[in-house]
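[audit] Reproducing an earlier prediction to check determinism. Same input, same settings, fresh worker. If the tokens differ from the archived copy the diff job will pick it up downstream; this log only records the rerun itself.
[audit] input (45 residues):
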Amino acid sequence: MEIQAGSGAPDFALAAHNTDQKVSLAAFRGRPVVVAFMPFAFTGG
């Protein structure tokens, strides 16, 4: 999926860190949000 600069982010939901709850981007609509993806964070590989 390609996202154009300046367009809104598509809605998605991910598991919250250390919980079984899901966090949805839609829950933060209208507020500034920084989303960072760190694959294999804190691993030796």
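[audit] rerun output stored. Observation attached for the diff report: The CA atoms of residues 11 and 27 lie 9 Å apart.
[audit] end
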